[in-house]
Amino acid sequence: IAYELVIGATGAYIAGDGVTQFSLTIGVFLFAMGIGSFLSRQVTNNLLTTFISVEIVVGLVGGFANTILFMVYGFLTGYEVVFYALLIFIGTLVGLEIPILLRLLSTYGRLRVNVSNVLALDNIGALAVAVCFPLVLLPALGLMRTSLLFGLLNVAVGLGNAIYFRREKLSKALPV
User: pTM for this one?
Assistant: First the structure.
């Protein structure tokens, strides 16, 4: 939801008509998440590497999404094309995350517990972002720095997973 809020707010600032911008942002983003979830079945190898890569790419592209949109609007034509391309690209990658994460977690517990934990934490995080974005982050950091913060958090999750699982793999490989 963080990137939906950032892109929706950017669209509202640039194009006006906040209701239309947020409606289209949410609808296209959710549609793209469905595409990502559907495509996740094609990921059969290297789940961890794919998950980490998705987190980092989402963080980089999502973190700079509003900068890209403002630059396109200010210096180029085709703002709408870039707007929807970013929504579809980021939404598709976000749609990959949960199915791949659930498959990764399948070795750590039962499916019903993993699904409920992942979805519960995802929805709690969505509420936290939905409340903090307009009440704390936007007033304190502004739109561009808030977007960069969300991007940094995604990249940190990706790198944190890479470090954690590399250490775990090394500790299992080394005799104690």
Answer: 0.90
Q: Can you tell me the distance from the alpha carbon of 46 to that of 67, in angstroms, rounded to the nearest whole number? A: 32
- The angle at the Cα of 43, spanning 152 to 92, to the nearest 5 degrees, equals 50
What is the identity of the amino acid at 99? Answer: P
DSSP per residue, 130-155: HHHIIIIIHHHHHHHHHHHHHHHHHH
102-109 — which CB contacts under 8 Å span 24+ positions? 103/47, 104/47, 104/48, 104/51
Helix (H) or strand (E) holding 42: none
Residue from 11, 98, 101 nearest 48 by CA: 101
pLDDT in tens, 11-28: 999 998 899 999 999 999
- The whole-angstrom separation of Cα 137 and Cα 152 is 14
Gyration radius (Cα) of the chain, Å: 18
Q: How far apart are CA 39 and CA 98, in angstroms?
A: 12
Tokens 């940094």 map to which residue? 152
